[in-house]
# Entry
Amino acid sequence: PGGARVATFPLKISSREAAGSEGLELLTATVQLKGVEEGVYELGIVTGRSGDDSALATPFVLLEQGGGGQVWAALTSPRKSRTAASAGAPVQTPKTAAPKGKRTRKIDAGPVRDGYRAALRRLAEGDRNGARDAMLELQTKVLTGEKPAISDDLVDVELDVAAELARQDLESLVPVLTLHQVLYRDAVHKGGYLLSTHNRELIFRLVALYAERSGSPEGKLRAARFLMGLAAEMVWTAPPSLRARVFQQILAYDNRQEAAILCLAVDAERQGRYADAVAYLERLSPTHTEARLRLAVNLARLGKTQEARKLLRELSEPAANPANIEPWHLAVAWQEMARLQLAAGDLDGAEKTLREGLQRLPEDDKLALQLGLVRDLRKDPRGARDAVAGLGKTPGDGGAARHRYNQLPLESLDQAWTELQEQGVGQIPALAAVLGVPAAGEAPRNTP
# Structure
């Protein structure tokens, strides 16, 4: 990103059609990326002659293993057609011409800047819902009106205003960030792809501005927390490549951010990239019980059963595991240990493990089911029936442990979102001061 061109390849567009009512086009295309290593890149596409208005670009695309070779890219026209100027390979033109749509224009920065500052003044005065509505109206008019502008141009105007605020008081950016976080969340939930993409990219730029202007390690740590707030929404709606982008950027600001590392590990495991998951998990503290549990599971998937069994035993033995270990950690540890013992044909060991687990967690349905399997394999149908007799009859968590294991660490992300919203309210006076409006009192918490 922002560097020299890595490679140029011919692109084959298989379909191109209008998408929705926002003047968007949906392209399905294929390209052979020969010799390009996994990583983060800036992607450009040229659909016409070099230097014309049909050049498209997106700041980041993550090429990763396990993604099935597919990636979503939200493309916007770069201001100077930089990608078009550097591209030299031929491009296959689709047989069907693109539908005639509204042509983009250069933005009229003055009125947009005034409208942006007016929306921020409403925020500074304590009217957060009014500020949100005003900002939404402005962005919608500029990006989807009769003469729609390019998202990059609108970002530049918004960022210029934010930079002016930051020069007077850096903390005045915090309420601005929280406002765009809410706009992003609203747009995603309403299927507003253009507005969600615009606000997401603006958030990245605003956070980068904050980190750059702070010039301190503490500022970078705060920048990481701001992006954790964005990640709290992206984990629900964004594809793995976009999630990876936000978590990698978080780690660029704070390389010890446990939740970001854990999320990258969970996504890697979900995609079958067990070695990558292990690499992430090994970066976490040996006292991080969830990380040790996930490390054991991924080592087992890689065939490193001795290492996996050692970690699982350390977690599941009462004398060895930490006092604050959560019940679902224990449940999965016993389930995985029994699974490895069954795979090795050690029925005695598996039964002992499962009975230990059920003694501690008597309502865990998964452990009971595994014990029933062991008794069945030992030709003991009565024992198998007894083991599973209570399934579904108790109000316990049952299989919730495995369900929890398959989830991202949402608690940390939700906490980051809540903290960010509270910080935004707390810094309203700073925004009011730089905008020259009377400082509002404690604003009602009317923003979801």
